[in-house]
Design a protein that fits this description.
This protein is of the alpha+beta class and 181 residues long. The chain has a single domain, classed as START domain (Alpha-D-Glucose-1,6-Bisphosphate, Chain A, domain 4), CATH 3.30.530. Helices cover 25% and strands 41% of the residues. The protein has an 8-stranded antiparallel sheet with strand order 1-8-7-6-5-4-2-3, with helices on one face. Strands 9-10 form a two-stranded antiparallel sheet. Helix 1 packs across helix 2 and helix 1 crosses helix 4. The N and C termini lie far apart (37 Å).
Length: 181
């Protein structure tokens, strides 16, 4: 198994970082790799047999949490499917939230194409006199290889993909949350 664990200090409150992680509408705002959310109608498909995709649009990007809106925490266990860009290739990413401990730990199972991994976020407040800060840790555990049509992607390539995924995710959350602080 390949394990990658990194962390970043974010100049934002613990609650703000948690909301960015658990609220799917915020995921559309901070994750530049997300092309849109795939929504299935009742019974799993629309009348024409295709899933609907909520695309990232300027209207979606105007979403701001107002004073009367509730915090979605604690996050319910859920499955979200996204149109996701990995290395220039559009794929489907399925995110299954397995457990969510309010403002502390989020465990997910991620499937991107034929790649599967377990992803854990941990949050620790590091507030000081300069303001609120949060240490966000991200750990991903993936298999040693990925089966792709007719071939197998080896351990070193999988490791590169996982490192890039973790690094990009942390940087994008950091940028998004700090810009609103």
């Amino acid at each position: 198994m390949i394990t990658v664990a990194l962390s970043a200090t974010i100049d934002a409150s613990h609650e703000r970082v948690w909301r960015a992680l658990v609220d799917p509408t915020e995921r559309l705002l901070w994750d530049e790799r997300i092309l849109g959310e795939i929504t299935l109608s009742r019974g799993g498909q629309k009348a024409d047999g295709f899933a609907r995709i909520r695309r990232k649009t300027p209207e979606n990007n105007l979403h701001k949490r107002g004073p009367g809106r509730k915090d979605p925490s604690p996050a319910p266990l859920r499955t979200t499917r996204w149109r996701f860009q990995l290395g220039g290739t559009p794929l489907v990413m399925q995110e299954e939230v397995r457990s969510a401990l309010r403002h502390g730990r989020l465990d997910c199972r991620i499937l991107i194409g034929s790649m599967q991994f377990d992803q854990t976020f941990t949050l620790h407040p590091e507030d000081d006199e300069t303001g609120p800060r949060t240490r966000l840790g991200m750990k991903v555990v993936a298999g040693n290889s990925i089966a792709v049509i007719g071939e197998v992607v080896g351990r070193l390539e999988v490791q590169k993909i996982v490192i890039e995924h973790v690094d990009t995710t942390l940087r994008q959350i950091q940028k998004f949350c700090a810009s609103e602080a």
